[in-house]
Amino acid sequence: MEKGSKKGKSRRGRERAIRFVFFGVALASIATLGLIALFLFVEGLPILGKVSVTDFVFGKFWYPTDEPPDFGIFPLIMGSVCVTAVSSVISIPLGVMTALYLAECASARGREWVKPIVELLASLPSVVIGFFGMVIVAPFLQEILDIPTGLNLFNASLMLAFMSIPTICSLSEDAIFSVPTELKEASLALGATHWETIARVILPASISGISTAVILGMSRAMGETMVVLMVAGGAAMIPTSLFDPVRPMPASIAAEMAEAPFQGDHYYALFAIAIVLFLFTLAFNLVAEHISNKYRQVGAATL
Amino acid sequence: MKIKGIAIMAFLVAGLFAANMAWAGKIVIKGSTTVLPIAQKVAEAYMKQNPDIKISISGGGSGNGIKALIDGSTDIADSSRFIKGKEIKLALKKGAYPVPFAVAYDCIVPVVHPSNSIVNITMAQLKDIYMGKIKNWKELGGPDRPVVVISRDTSSGTYEVWSKKVMAKKRVYPGALLQASNGTIVQTVSKNKNAIGYIGIGYMNKDVKPLMVNRIVGSAATTLNGTYPISRPLFMFTPGWPKGDVLNFINFVINPNKGQKYVAEAGFVPLY
Fold it and tell me: Which residue of B has its CA nearest to A236?
């Protein structure tokens, strides 16, 4: 190898070239993300010349076009947080239990049927889910529960749960599936029932993977735009009940950007909301990354 | 190779600059979604009569239209509001002198669910509803049901008119449901028997019930004679006094026997 024939050299050269190409490709996506983040900050930070960070983040009124305007996004943040929280309450049990069923209980045929259907749910365009929530679920909720409007926090959370279930389910299933068979067999050999094995061995062994799945599902719910724009009701107030209309951050950006005067205060404020949203989802992803690294299941020994 | 590359670059750059100016035979229109149906109908008719002219139209909102006018990427900007002071300053800085043409009138009508028994509402009542002071229909002599207030996004041109004419600069209360378009307001109101919303008269259909305002029916006649209180002019802006194809088109739009016919067809109120 040290001397290397001519052929060997050209092979090494090609190897290096290929490595370079792949490095470039990987760099391109990182550079894109970097540029987007840079652009967000360049377009969003000027608003801090008009309002302080505390007034912006904790201000209770969002009236960007009034004279004088109010740029308080606390109701929008609360909208996003509440919608994400309620949707997680619905989607986490459903997603994780579906994953457990698929990985542990389902017969080969059942798996063949359920899995593609859950994955199909992931490929439904969000505007379709939003339309469904707006035209069918909203009047239904209003009728059944006798509430003023069906376009509210609960409806939006329900629709978002539909969207995050496939993410949570398929990632959790991978985690559960990758629990070593020895563990399961050992548990069964010790006389544990199937349920005891699932609850005490398989779930703890795959908890890091499941947590990652849950957090990624939540970050999807937080960033989702079309559904909350169509279904959440769009009232910029801090919700006091499950059936209050809310206005999550992405909905505000999507609804107002088209009409905001270019490089006016409103425009900067919308970009600043985007920064907040970006920080939220970034935090979610960092936590997911941290959990999956810290509690990584390596072989059968680390349990 | 290098020279060729530079030549291509130069060509591209020249192309970019040229795209900023009006191409002979091509007119670009951008802006308000309220004006969009008018622009579409009129442009269709115009292109039929002048097959060598190509008109491309897109929506995106009044703000975006004026934005495009300022940065030179459109020949005509549709707007459902007059241009703002800040925008004029920006335009002048970039060398564009915006010229307004009123092309039609819009008449904004409060609408409720067809099952609602209310037929008339006063401006003061509308204001109280949108400030969150009136919370039940029975306060207006209607059924004992909560009022669900539906408004447009605070950046839409329709909201601006509503806030100026009805709210008299008072704020729409935070509990109002904000919708992004006239269409979704019709959709939401038609699905909710507690709801009240407001839409441009062009979007009126039988799924929702229009209310009289101060005992005046919102219509073309009451808009033009000035008795209907919630109406506004709609504009097309050009960067500088229009020339050539753009001038011909604008003349077509405001001609009572040509473009204005289609304004009425699109559901708006013609100028004459």
Answer: B174
Interface of B with A in 191-230 (CB under 8 A): 191-192, 194-195
Domains of chain B: 22-104+233-265 (3.40.190.10), 106-231 (3.40.190.10)
Enumerate the residues of chain B whose CB falls inside 8 A of the CB of residue A266.
155
Q: What is the pLDDT of residue B1?
A: 43
ipTM: 0.74
Nearest CA distance, A138 vs chain B (angstrom): 8
Q: Say whether residue B152 is in contact with chain A using an 8 A CB cutoff.
A: no
pLDDT in tens, A258-276: 767 777 788 899 999 999 9
- Which of A63, A259, A262 best tests the B interface by mutation, with the highest count of B CBs <10 A? A259
Please list every residue in chain A whose beta carbon sits closer than 8 Å to the beta carbon of residue B146.
Answer: 148
CA atoms of B198 and B62, how far apart (whole Å): 18
Residue B21 binned pLDDT confidence (cut-offs 50, 70, 90): very low
Give the Cα separation of A103 and B136 in Å (integer): 53
pLDDT digits (tens, 9 = 90+) for A203-256: 888 888 899 899 989 998 998 999 999 999 888 889 999 999 999 999 999 888
